[in-house]
Structures are given as C-alpha cells and as structure tokens.
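Weekly puzzle thread! Below is a chain. First person to post its structure in token form gets bragging rights.
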Amino acid sequence: MAPKRPRGAGAFPKPVESPAPEPPDPSELYAALDLGTNSCRMLIAQPKGSGFHVVDSFSKSVQLGAGLEQTGRLSRSSMARTVQALRICQKKLDRNKVRRMRLVATEACRRARNARDFIRQVRRETGLDLEIIAPEEEARLAVISCAPLVSTKTEQLLVVDIGGGSTELVWIDVSSVPGRDRPKAIMRLHGGFHPAESPFPAAKVVDWISVPLGVATLRDQFRDVEDDSARFALMSWFFEENLAEFTPYHSDQEHERFQIVGTSGTVTTVAASHLGLKRYDRTKVDGLRMTSDQIDKVIRGYLALGPSGRRQDPRIGEDRHALIMSGSAILQALLRCWPTDRLSVADRGLREGLLYAQMSADGVLEDGPF
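Winning reply:
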C-alpha cells in the first residue's frame, strides 16, 4: 500500500520577507556639508547613543580651487563643477526632508576675490546657503570630530587636519582631565577653544595654527619643479618653514603620553598603503595607529614608484595620485618636528565635527563612551 501523500506536500514554501527598514524621522536628521578647495562632501545622519548613524552621504572631487594660486579667483569651470555637485546634495537634502543643517565652505572661498559672487550663484541655482567659516572654527570642528579616537592615556594631543587649501594644527593639553573623561572633554570644545567656566574638567587648547598650504595649494606652488624627489623635498621643507610660529612643547615630549591624530585623505591613503589594501576599507583604517617609521617607509615607497607608478597603484587611487606627494610632504614635515609612535589615523573630519557640534548643542547625544 502506497504511503499517503501528506496534505500540502509539494506546495511552494511561504516566502519569508524581511520588513523594509523604517525610514528615519526627518525631525531627527542632521546634515553637514564641507566644501573645500578640492572636494565637496556631505553627510546626513541621525543621533544614535553618543554618536550618530549615517543615513545618506555624498563625496566628489570638484577642484574648486583649481587655478586660484595664479589668479586669486575661482574659475568659471570650477564653479560650474561645484554647482553641479551641490545640486545633487540639494536633492538628497530634499529627499530626506532635512531641516537642521550646516553647509560650510573653507579655504578656497576664504581666499577667492569672487567668493561672495559664487555663494550668491549657489543660492540662486540650488537654494543652498553656504557659510564661509573662519580658520579657527575649521580647526575646532576637526578637533571634535577626532574626540572618539583620543586615548585615555594621552596627556598632550596634536590634531592635524590636512586639507586641500590649508592645514590646521591644534595642540591640546588634557593632563588635568581624568583619563576616561578625555574624549568627552575634547568634545566639549564645540563651544569654542576657550569655553566659559564649566563644572567639568576642561581640555586646554595650548596653541593652534592654520597654515594656508594644503595638498592642492602646496602642489601648485612647486608644479614647475620637474624632478620628483627634489619637488617632494622642497615642498616638505617649505611647509616646515611655515610652522615656525607653532612650537608648543617642541622638543620636550614624552612619547608615552603624546598622541597625534591625523585627519585627511593623505593620512588615510598612507594607512591603506601600509595595510596593503587594494580596495579601501574604512573599518580597517579609521583608528589605526602608525609609527613614524611605518609612515616613512610608505612615503619612501611612493617616491620609488615615481609619478607613473603612483598613478597605477590601486592603493592610492585615481583621485589621489596627483595630490599624495604634497600631502606626504606635509606629513613628513610634521613628523620631523614631532616624531611619534602613536599617530592615530582618522577617517573623519569637518563633516563629522559639524554633526557632533549640532547634536551636542541640541543635547541629543547620550552621555556615554563613544
């Protein structure tokens, strides 16, 4: 006797569908846009614990400062490229119904004689209100973006933000702050480098400087030097000369309690090269610690490759190969002044600082470890 076929046998299984994620509440969203000399970047995020969750992002090389060194003006082609990128940002902001945002421009717009005309053009063509921020605010925002990477053992901290048109350095003393509170003390600098009296232990800004040389402007100044190694050496020494007025704790520094945090495409590219990454992976790069010797080895490798080798190196990438040696020259100059075995790589910067500052001011971040 043949066995009975069970009821429902052979029927298609009922599909199990995972529910679509709930779209974020627009009232919880914040946006930050950073228009620099070389790139246009934007993040849209919502607060999550003591940090935030990224909902949408945008990044494009627009080369806004192309030709600025020679003419003192933003060119028509660079402005057109930038407006096109900003239109994409505006559509993302509208799609996500973002209402709380800060949209800032930095060194190229600070220096260009026609910057105000460009800001008006952006408002007219995209509806976006760009704000040109001062060097001190740019430095401060870079600092607070790096707060989560500050070691609880650090007493002296140097934050370095290598941009396209300028480089910001901020030296912070946190020796009077209990170790576990040091990252939070740095976050509290969102109100200014010299905040009002507070019941909390404060991070002290010893000194800061904004050098009007970044990866694009430094490269442009030495574009006429044909020899690759000579150009690199000249760029590095020229940058160091521009640090003459910034010498806190210049030679008397304990490596054990001193930390440099570097935030820029240069620093993250050097880190990716050190790790041998063929495809960039932020989770492996952000927070990585490197020694001066490891960084020097990567830079010497770049020099050995030459311009054509760097162009083809997948660790550097097409967008970065033309700027990596000027950025490396800045990095090498810094490590000559302050050698360290604790350079922390930060894949974060002005956008993250803008988000942290807005969220901290609104009191929507939880008080806990980052």
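Puzzle host: Confirmed. Bonus trivia for everyone else. Residues 137 and 192 are 8 Å apart (CA to CA).
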